Amino acid sequence: MMKVRFWGTRGSIATPGQSTMRYGGNTSCVEVRCGNELLVFDAGTGIRDLGNQLLKEFPTDPMTVHVFVSHTHWDHIQGFPFFLPAYQPKNTIHLYGPPGRDKSFDKILKIQMDSDYFPVELGAMRAKLHVHEIREDIKLGSLEIKHFYLNHPALCLSYRVNDGTRSFVYATDNEPYQGTLFHNTQLATAATDFPTYLDEKFVEFMTGADLLVGEAQYTNEEYPEKRGWGHSPLESVVRFAVQANVKKFALFHHDPQHDDDFVDGMVRDAKNIAMHFKGTTECIGAKEGLEIVLA
What is the rounded CA–CA span in Å between residue 191 and residue 36? Predict the structure, then answer.
């Protein structure tokens, strides 16, 4: 089976407080277990609690953790300096991610922990750290991890995990290229409607997924003022999930201005939108501590 657990579901900045307790205030971090493999998607502030739990689970045994970073904006990497398993020599940590526009992935991680910003440098982490810039698909035992570039101000990757039976897609920080409308465009005419073609390729990437953890940060009403910021209006991402015949869609990367009640409303709207498009996709809200088993 494949087990997915949410450790951080918030976007942009951590939002602790009474109004965000149900969905959580930590920034992006999702754990995936399949067989003996332990995968982590993004290293936002939620990875600190994940690390603490792993130390309890493996007090003496060495662990190997594969951390897949979507992109290097702060809310997706700022928890890594507090990931305690990375400070233990017995452990092995693999970090995967895209390069920056003018810096390597490795250099960005080092800069974050430069003494001007943080008291402990990356080199103080005593685990065996292996940093990989994503260039091709990755095989981990029976797992295959594919990637797809998203539409965001930073180079940003979506990941798809397949074990031969089940599939999980992690796709946060993406803005549709062509609004919220979908048109069937043949490859031969793609040059005349390239934005639509790119959106169709994204739908193709996540087609048939058992679970999509997808960013739906804005309502349709909020989106016009945020256009170009690299995030999705609710209608477009639900539409894409329905078109891709995704079984379950977890709304993710909740906006820091949205409290629990507001997110409740977005989940209700997502369900109505899926029904409107005659889709069978189940829409839920991603909550810290929620565990989903794909069996």
Answer: 44
Task: Match 């594969």 to its residue by tokens.
Answer: 66
**pTM, whole model, 2 decimals?**
0.94
Distances (CA, A) of 3 to 30, 37, 213, 251: 10, 11, 13, 17
**CA–CA gap between residue 149 and residue 151 (Å, rounded):** 7
Contact 146, 227 (CB under 8 A): no
pLDDT (tens digit per residue) in 106-158: 999 999 999 999 999 999 999 999 999 999 999 999 999 999 999 999 999 99
Choose the weakest-confidence range: 145-149, 228-232, 251-255: 228-232
User: What pLDDT, on the 0 to 100 scale, is given for residue 179?
Assistant: 56
Give the residue carrying structure tokens 């409740």: 264
- Give the pairing type, strands 291-294 and 2-8: antiparallel
Q: How far apart are CA 200 and CA 135, in angstroms?
A: 22
Q: Write out pLDDT tens, residues 168-205.
A: 999 999 999 875 444 444 444 444 578 888 999 999 99
Mean pLDDT of the chain: 94
Written as one letter, the residue type at 118 is F
What are the chain's domains?
Answer: 2-294 (3.60.15.10)
- Contact status, residue 77 vs residue 83, Cβ threshold 8 Å: no
Cα atoms found within 13 Å of the Cα of residue 276, Cβ hemisphere only = 10
